[in-house]
Amino acid sequence: MSMMTIQFIGLVLAVYCILYVCGKLQKSDKTYKRTRNWILIAASFGFMCYADVRFACVLLAVSLCAFVFAKYKKLWFIGVIMSIAGLCYFKYTNFFISSFGKLVGNDYGALKIILPLGISFYTFSAIGYIIDVKRGEIEPRSFEEVLTYITFFPKITSGPIQRSNDFFSQIDERKQLGVSTFVPGMEIFFFGLFKKIVLADRLSVFVNQVYDMPNTFSSFTVFLAVVAYSFQIYFDFSGYSDMAIGVGKMLGIEMPKNFNLPYLAHNVTELWKRWHITLSTWLMKYLYISLGGNRKGKFRTYLNLILTMVIGGIWHGANWTYVIWGLLHGLALAAHKAWMELTGSVKKTHSAVSNVISITLTFLFTTFCWIFFRAESLSNALAVIGRIFSFKTGVFQPFLWLFATLIIYFVCVAFAAKRSKSNPEEKPKKLNFSFVNGFYPTLDLSKFWHLVVLFVFVGCIILFAYTGGSPFIYGNY
Prior knowledge:
The protein is mainly alpha-helical. Helix content is 68%, strand content 0%. The protein has helices at 6-25, 29-51, 53-71, 76-104, 119-134, 143-151, 164-171, 179-212, 219-250, 268-274, 277-288, 298-316, 320-343, 352-374, 378-390, 400-419, 448-464. Helix 2 crosses helix 6, helix 3 packs across helix 6 (143-151) and helix 4 crosses helix 5 (119-134). The longest helix has 34 residues, at 179-212. The two termini are 16 Å apart.
């Protein structure tokens, strides 16, 4: 059940109406909270069962594991290991078998193992909850509350990966649904929908053509396709995140923002503070720090950065291309940290020209890494890279929608830069991209022109939507 289907919209509206009525009828806060939780749980398992009943069984097992081993704190490590083992079994068994077969020169064939929908995301939520309880940051919760947290359906397939204490602090309160939750949530949902079906999906047509036959196209066209994929995956995944955040807001749950104009990052370190923010935070809090962080000397710090990103790459998928993607980012993070310590440039101010150069170089590096992320295999990735640097002629296809997308992107960046503030009191006299905040404001629909803007925006979605049915990229992880 994709977020872009009538069935999903019907589910959201049904859950909203039921919660709204319950909020009006039930006077007791305790009764309302429990009723709300079980309604959300029922909706989440209904959502999962619609895809496959077996997926729902795996989700229930992971949630039960998190509840039991967080409650018995001395056994917390078993809960983490079991969660990781389950993820590895479903996601990586065939990868390990295939890799071992190639190593010894045999083809053992693939096992028929299902890949449960969203297992990477809700497993990380479960592990985070267990560790939070173990560290004493939160108290163990009831099974009902743990189920509500791990299975919350807007975020279950592709995040954001919400911290347990953030989620529980919200369901501990009684929040009445109404215009104040529904309208802003609807607007954010539409913003995400525009990113997905108007921008990302149209770019996917061009990207798929070139990656399927890179040697057919000219070097410049292949380069354009590589750039197009950078924007495709950004609009696709940030679009999903916006849609999930919007649905969560409609239902009274505020979810964390996941993207903040990542292609304005000056370096790789800043990139990972702007891209997939909730995953970056999770990896930092539960993996990098657990490995020792920066507490055990410089060499271990660099090694921990590299290991964290390699594991982050493997988390994305069972393919050596993801390992290389994670390794490249890990090496870049370690190199940047070493450079900063060597030069002390963190204390220096930079000119506008140096800012533009650093943003451009960071984007080009990120785009290069995306080749390995997008390619079906290592040979496909090398073919794309080789074609770009061969400078050969071939089919020349200047995909016009890419340039239209870039115009839309830069216009939005300009508005974001104008709106950004250097501090809460005053705007900077000159645009400083260090302060650009890409979190858009919602419209006040009590004002006529704001209402006109919304209707025009929805009209653009209907007019320019790509109807090819391209799935969300991160829905595969």
